[in-house]
Amino acid sequence: MSGEPPRVFDVLSPMVADCLEQLNAMSVSEVKQVVESIPAGLRMMVEPVAEPLTGEYLSRVAEYAIAVELEKGYSPVSDAVHSHPESSYVLEALPELRDLIDKDGLIELNANFVLFDGGIRYRDFVLHYHQFLRRGFSSNPNFDFLGVLARYRHSTGRTNKFRIAIDHRRLMRFDDYRQTIERDRWYGPTFDRKTLDDPSHVGLAVVGRINGNALDSYPIERTEFLWKLNEGEKIKTLEIEEVSSSSNPYDGWHINRYVHAERDMPNQVFRHFDGAAKVYAPNKYKGRIDQTMPNQPRCDHYVKMFRIDGEILLDDWLSLVGMFYKSNEMVIEYFDPELFDAKFRPMRERMGQI
């Protein structure tokens, strides 16, 4: 409902406006009845019903009420139990996919498919995951599983074959797709010294800022940490990129600090460490906001800041990383949560009260 994607907004906006008009004419008890009729998974977003009823609150109720009504006709479970549906909106638009569907109704994913945690890109379209891969079997995908699956396919797709079920009733143009960051502020594998040299402990972690506001000297929305294995080597690579706020460009550019490091697991040292600034043009930065590593768009300029090669001990490396990311407390939160809780979390929570 923010105005993007425009095709969705153009259809839903008048419906929500009509619903809001009706809610404004209701008593508090009647509004409570509307809220109580919303399924629990969505109702938690509009509870409790507090007086006085504000315009912002009623607008939120209107959005969720419309979502519930759409869901009733859009995702009947009876249609989802057939692995080979009689009619398929997807196959009608993309008939060549019939050859990729196996006897269980799964699509065999080849190099033409790109997995996101919110959908599957194919050509100029996004295929939706099957209804039973969505939380509560309704709208929101199971990001925890699908995100891990997408990253696992990215890292093992050359040796493993992947197949997945889709929703044949839904199809979206890729231009209308917006990557959804999980509503939790913090998600992904945590940092642990004990698993640092474990080749199976890899993946993407995203840490969002607590109560970001104008008082921050360096406006950042989140910081991403991506661990992955180097193919054919006993080397684990870490990439860190902070994602600065889209509303605070510097002289018309968006600047994200970036770190790349290589961990020699058998020798338990870092063999390489460098830092850079990734610079994005304003007309491309929304793509960076909407995507997470490793699917983020390329930056317009990559400006290397430093490089170290040799044998770098963990504590020395952590100190250098922390200092490089000065004013970014999310790096401390990821690598040293106890220090963050003691010194940084209280400050961030106070900022939320300003």
Q: Can you characterise this structure?
A:
This protein is α+β, with helices and mostly antiparallel strands and 354 residues long. The chain folds into 3 domains: 6-74; 79-176, no CATH class; 186-351, no CATH class. Helix content is 33%, strand content 24%. It is built from 11 helices and 13 strands. It has helices spanning 6-24, 28-36, 40-43, 55-74, 77-80, 89-93, 143-156, 282-290, 314-324, 329-335, 337-351, and strands at 107-108, 113-115, 120-122, 125-129, 163-164, 166-173, 186-187, 203-208, 220-229, 235-244, 254-264, 269-280, 301-312. The strands form 3 sheets. A 7-stranded antiparallel beta sheet has the order 7-8-9-10-11-12-13, sandwiched between helices. A 4-stranded antiparallel beta sheet has the order 2-3-4-6. The protein has a two-stranded antiparallel sheet with strand order 1-5. Helix 1 (6-24) crosses helix 4 and helix 10 (329-335) runs antiparallel to helix 11 (337-351). The relative contact order is 0.08.
Q: Which properties best describe this structure?
A:
354 residues, alpha+beta, seven-stranded antiparallel beta sheet, four-stranded antiparallel beta sheet, 11 helices, 33% helix
Short synopsis of the structure:
The protein has 354 residues and is α+β, with helices and mostly antiparallel strands. The chain contains 11 helices and 13 strands.
Write the layout of secondary structure elements.
Blueprint: H1 6-24, H2 28-36, H3 40-43, H4 55-74, H5 77-80, H6 89-93, E1 107-108, E2 113-115, E3 120-122, E4 125-129, H7 143-156, E5 163-164, E6 166-173, E7 186-187, E8 203-208, E9 220-229, E10 235-244, E11 254-264, E12 269-280, H8 282-290, E13 301-312, H9 314-324, H10 329-335, H11 337-351
Antiparallel strand pairs: 1-5, 2-3, 3-4, 4-6, 7-8, 8-9, 9-10, 10-11, 11-12, 12-13
